[in-house]
Write a structure and sequence with these properties.
Length: about 120
């Protein structure tokens, strides 16, 4: 039969269990090892601590907040060498601003921008 403390520890989540194991000095399981958390479990656990509430703010402040999130994601992909997947989105933004962009004829990591004639 489980003790009161064992029952109380159940349901506290993956990160709680990881911290408890580290306190006890036990070795963490390697990726793919039997009993190791899956990638999906880790993603779920990372989302546990984030409590997002509905957000109300000024129109332009909302645009800035969203743009900063998009820019951060693009920057991370740029560092990983996966910026090309964002090119269609960047082309749409350029079109809204009255520009066209292309990577044709440019060296790697460069983009050419030109004005759209109306």
């Amino acid at each position: 039969m489980k003790s009161f403390f064992e029952i109380r520890e159940q349901g506290k989540g993956l990160w709680h269990n990881i911290h408890q194991k580290r306190k006890r000095g036990e070795r963490m399981r390697k990726k793919g090892e039997k009993g190791a958390p899956t990638a999906a479990a880790m993603k779920r656990a990372k989302g546990e601590s984030i409590d997002e509430a509905p957000l109300v703010m000024d129109d332009m402040a909302m645009v800035d907040a969203i743009w900063n999130d998009i820019r951060e994601k693009m920057f991370k992909d740029k560092l990983r060498g996966k910026f090309e997947k964002h090119l269609p989105f960047v082309q749409q933004i350029a079109k809204m601003a009255g520009y066209k962009i292309t990577k044709k004829g440019q060296t790697k990591g460069r983009t050419f921008r030109y004005d759209v004639k109306k």
